Each structure stands twice: as C-alpha cells, then as structure tokens.
C-alpha cells in the first residue's frame, strides 16, 4: 500500500490481501479517498433515487416509531476501540470458520426478502457477488428467486460457495418439512430459523404506501407447490404465533444440516438454544422491524456471548455500517456479523457489482482496522478493547 502524504511517499510493507484484489470496483486508490460508511451511504442514496418509494420504504423502514431502527446504528457510535500497540503483523487473516461454511471475511449477508424488488436479477445477482467475496449468503424463504436457483447462481461463481437457508417455522409442520427438503436438495449448507417473528411487526411506512403485495410477476418462489396448495400455486408465508421450542426440536431432528437460531436477544434463550442443539445463535432485533421496545443488537450482544460461553458461535446483525462496527462486534465476542439493508442498497444501485462493492469496502476496512489495532487475526480483537465514547463524535452521523 502506498499513499502520498505531505509530499512524501509512505509505504506499508506486506499490506495484506486487500491490495491484491480490486475485482469489485474498489481499487486501492479509491480506498484512500473514501470510507465504507461513505460508500454505503452513497449506495443508499442511489437506491433511493432508483427505487419506487414504496419499495425503498419497505426495505428502509422499521416497526412502530422506528426507535430500534435508529438505535442499532446509534449504539455502535457510542462504542470505541482501544488499539493495542507494538503487536504488528505483516499480513492479517480475516477468515472465520462457522458451522455451515468458511467466510473469507467476518461479514455475511443477512436474510432479506424480495431482492427482485431491488434489481431484476434479484437473489441471483446477490448470490454471485457473495460467492465471489467468499462469504455466506443467508437466503430467505421470502426470496423472489427459488432457493435451487440461488444456490446455482452462487456455485456458478464458486463451486464451493456456501448458501444458508432462512425459514420461519410454518404452522403446518408438513410445509416446514417440505421447505427444509428443498433447501437440502438445493445444496444449502445450513438452516437459519428466525424466532423473533411469531407475528409480523407493524410497519407504518408500508401502511402509508398501501404496500401489501408484490407487483405482478414477482413472487416468493420457494412457496410454490407446497402441501395444501394446488400445483403451481403459491402459499402465503405464515407467521406462527404458537411457535415453540418443540418446533425447533422437530426441525433439529429432521435434518443433519447445522441449525442456527436467529433473533435471540435474551441470554437465557441463547442457553436454551444451545441446549436444544443449535450450532449457532444470531443476536438480532430483525433490523428494528419486529419489536420496537428492544435494545440495540450490539447492546444485547455481550450478555448472550457470556451465556453461550463459547459452546457455539454467536453472529450479530443490525446497524453494521462500517468496518469499525464489525471490529467492535467482534471484540465484544461475535464470530461474524450480518448486513441486511446495505446489501439491498448495493443491489438496487448497481446489481451484482453493487453488492460486491458493499462486501469489499467492509472487508477492506476491517483489514485496515485490524492492522491499526495490532491484530494478526480476528481473535486479537478482545472485549477489553471496547470502551464507551461520548455521543456526537461521528462526522457522518452527528
Ligand atoms: C427488507 C428486509 C427484509 C427482511 N426479511 C427478513 C426475512 O425474511 N427473514 C429474516 O430472518 N430476517 C429478515 N430481515 C432482517 C435481516 O435478516 C437482518 O436481521 C437485518 O436486516 C439486520 O439489520 P440491518 O438491515 O441494519 O443490517 C429483513 C430485513 C429487511 C431490511
Ligand atoms: O420484512 C421482513 O422483515 C420479513 O421478515 C418478512 C417476513 C415475511 C415475508 C417477507 C419478509
């Protein structure tokens, strides 16, 4: 890496894999001019400009008064990292092994619905970008491309690409079982069960736009040809108000795939999840889309990490918008983070290349931060490095 600085040329030896890439539209020179936060904000604005306002607000919006929506990002701004010094390493290893796949960098793509609202190629474009970045796509049951085609798109880029399948347990066990078989047959390498949605959150923005249905030609393609519906017909994705640990047990018994539980905030639920045989826990408040009274995801993280006590990995999603957010979450004990909306903005703004850019700037910024914090690999980010900061210090967010 080299940069002109006050008339001098400053060179860093062995700056690591970041500088050998450049396949995703963010060349080394570009990296010196911008930040992940600025890139993600710009992509969001481009997405806002190209999307139907109802679709933009479906993606952007949250539940209730959107307290938690804003709180996820705000909570990261209140945390700072204390670097360790004189612990240098010429290169860094950002990879992480999780049940269900290896990530080249600790950022996976959280499940979000209806990617074809953002871009005509929908989840296929997302899957190709994620596979090229050698991380994991958690593909939602509410995808507008069938899961078999999502996995095929990922494997067209990398035959070893890992795609996980997210599902809501359906009130009819037979329907749930059929979805699991579909994910297995497609080649998914893990299942993610979302537990924070026994009922749907109430989204004011959707109500104001009258946005309740997908436009003609788009559908939740995984919901075709399921038990209880006519051939070719679509079933609705149902929420299950009576969902219980027994549903999780049946799911656990029905597949040999690693099972993740997503939407955990209470440490005792994390312990129960481990006792019920999950392979991993996702600390998440659904990006502020379900319950508007909960803490920020990063605020809930440390207690869950402590409760799980290393028995399974913990992933966090919600409000991750820059490399610093990733580093803070990892220092607090997350094995990796998920990003939701930034991927939708990249997809809407520039399709596959836009998603690639989101993943690339985040990975590059984490790599740079790890170097600044004296880390050789992600285990070198530890909780003692996280401290509170006074509010209002981020130039971007105020
Ligand atoms: C438009 C949208 C759709 C979502 N759909 C799902 C879904 O179908 N299943 C699920 O488990 N989570 C869903 N989520 C939640 C994400 O998986 C994730 O928890 C959240 O987006 C993370 O927050 P972030 O957007 O701030 O990164 C959705 C989020 C958004 C924004
Ligand atoms: O919009 C969401 O957040 C979500 O989780 C969902 C649930 C059902 C269908 C589509 C998306």
UniProtKB/TrEMBL annotation:
<dbReference type="InterPro" id="IPR037396">
    <property type="entry name" value="FMN_HAD"/>
</dbReference>
<dbReference type="InterPro" id="IPR008259">
    <property type="entry name" value="FMN_hydac_DH_AS"/>
</dbReference>
<feature type="binding site">
    <location>
        <position position="58"/>
    </location>
    <ligand>
        <name>glyoxylate</name>
    </ligand>
</feature>
<keyword id="KW-0560">Oxidoreductase</keyword>
<feature type="binding site">
    <location>
        <position position="168"/>
    </location>
    <ligand>
        <name>glyoxylate</name>
    </ligand>
</feature>
<keyword id="KW-0285">Flavoprotein</keyword>
<feature type="binding site">
    <location>
        <position position="289"/>
    </location>
    <ligand>
        <name>glyoxylate</name>
    </ligand>
</feature>
<feature type="binding site">
    <location>
        <position position="166"/>
    </location>
    <ligand>
        <name>FMN</name>
    </ligand>
</feature>
<dbReference type="InterPro" id="IPR000262">
    <property type="entry name" value="FMN-dep_DH"/>
</dbReference>
<dbReference type="GO" id="GO:0016491">
    <property type="term" value="F:oxidoreductase activity"/>
</dbReference>
<feature type="binding site">
    <location>
        <begin position="111"/>
        <end position="113"/>
    </location>
    <ligand>
        <name>FMN</name>
    </ligand>
</feature>
<protein>
    <submittedName>
        <fullName>4-hydroxymandelate oxidase</fullName>
    </submittedName>
</protein>
<dbReference type="InterPro" id="IPR013785">
    <property type="entry name" value="Aldolase_TIM"/>
</dbReference>
<dbReference type="GO" id="GO:0005737">
    <property type="term" value="C:cytoplasm"/>
</dbReference>
<feature type="region of interest" description="Disordered">
    <location>
        <begin position="1"/>
        <end position="34"/>
    </location>
</feature>
<dbReference type="GO" id="GO:0010181">
    <property type="term" value="F:FMN binding"/>
</dbReference>
<feature type="binding site">
    <location>
        <position position="194"/>
    </location>
    <ligand>
        <name>FMN</name>
    </ligand>
</feature>
<dbReference type="InterPro" id="IPR012133">
    <property type="entry name" value="Alpha-hydoxy_acid_DH_FMN"/>
</dbReference>
<feature type="binding site">
    <location>
        <position position="262"/>
    </location>
    <ligand>
        <name>FMN</name>
    </ligand>
</feature>
<feature type="binding site">
    <location>
        <begin position="317"/>
        <end position="321"/>
    </location>
    <ligand>
        <name>FMN</name>
    </ligand>
</feature>
<comment type="similarity">
    <text>Belongs to the FMN-dependent alpha-hydroxy acid dehydrogenase family.</text>
</comment>
<feature type="binding site">
    <location>
        <begin position="340"/>
        <end position="341"/>
    </location>
    <ligand>
        <name>FMN</name>
    </ligand>
</feature>
<dbReference type="Pfam" id="PF01070">
    <property type="entry name" value="FMN_dh"/>
</dbReference>
<feature type="binding site">
    <location>
        <position position="286"/>
    </location>
    <ligand>
        <name>glyoxylate</name>
    </ligand>
</feature>
<keyword id="KW-0288">FMN</keyword>
<feature type="domain" description="FMN hydroxy acid dehydrogenase">
    <location>
        <begin position="32"/>
        <end position="391"/>
    </location>
</feature>
<feature type="binding site">
    <location>
        <position position="284"/>
    </location>
    <ligand>
        <name>FMN</name>
    </ligand>
</feature>
<feature type="active site" description="Proton acceptor">
    <location>
        <position position="286"/>
    </location>
</feature>
